Prior knowledge:
Blueprint: H1 2-61, H2 65-126, H3 131-134, H4 136-159
Helix pairs in contact: 2-4
Amino acid sequence: MSIGGDRRSLEKKLAEEVRRRETTESLLALRDEELSILKSEVDAQRQTIADLQEEKRRLSANAFTPDDDLLEELFAQLEVSEMRCRRRKVERDRWKAKAYIHRGLLQGVRNLILHKKKSKEVHTISEPSSPESLGEKEVKKKQKRIPHIVTKTFSRSGSLRVR
């Protein structure tokens, strides 16, 4: 029995050793798989880093090429806009000058016409043909009223402006 018992205990030990090796080998295989996955991820990250560095170098070499074209276009548009604004300002100033001259001419003509009318009306009304027929009180009243009526009338007509 000692030989048979030794054999069984050896077989048990051998079976345990085989299980341990299989378990260890399976664990090593899993770890190898995990390592290969991690290595592929690291390689992918390294490739991404390399691509980004290359892109960075390319962009730093050509940093302002697309932006320069855009800026030139924007400056050209700005210059055109400024020229348009200057032309409008010059044109507006010309129209203002013309309007000022025309307004001055119209006011001068109006004042001449009003002055002639005013002088005729005041002259004809203030000197009655026969003061005896009107009486002194009535003549004084009319002389006071006439300038008031004339100024009121012409102040209204002066408010009408030609545009």
